[in-house]
Amino acid sequence: MCGPAALAIAGAAMTIGGQITEGVGAARQAGYESKVAKINSGLESERARDAIVRGEEQVRIFQNKAGQERGAMRAAMAANGIDLDYGSASDVLGDQAQNAAEDAAALTHNSEREAMGFRQSAANWAGEAAAAKARKRGAIVGTVFKVGATALSSASQVGKINAAKKAG
Hints:
This protein has two helices and no strands. It has helices spanning 4-79, 87-167. Helix 1 runs antiparallel to helix 2 (87-167).
């Protein structure tokens, strides 16, 4: 049969083993979370770039259509003998050009706002990755301190048991 000191040492060893297992698990989980957050941050950054590219393409297509409309308007007016550089015809063409420019600017602005949302999300994921990395370090450091405290406490108990044996 084991004496009290041996039982205290065995209990300490089991506690330390459990603490190490828990700490390693927590560190691995935090490391995994950090990697996932980094991946998500990259995906959101890619979505932001895609939003800008799509917006540029929408503006290009819109400007082509607006140019075609303007050309058709000019051709129709010219075919009817209307002077394009003077009066109402000039005003109509100018208004069409102004409206097209405003619509193109709105398309650009909308794609930039969409991209900004993705960039903000990417920054949030990057922050989460950093926080998870810090949790990983904290799990490791915390485990070292728990193990150290358990070892010191157990050594103190064994010392008391041995001192009691000698005194008794």
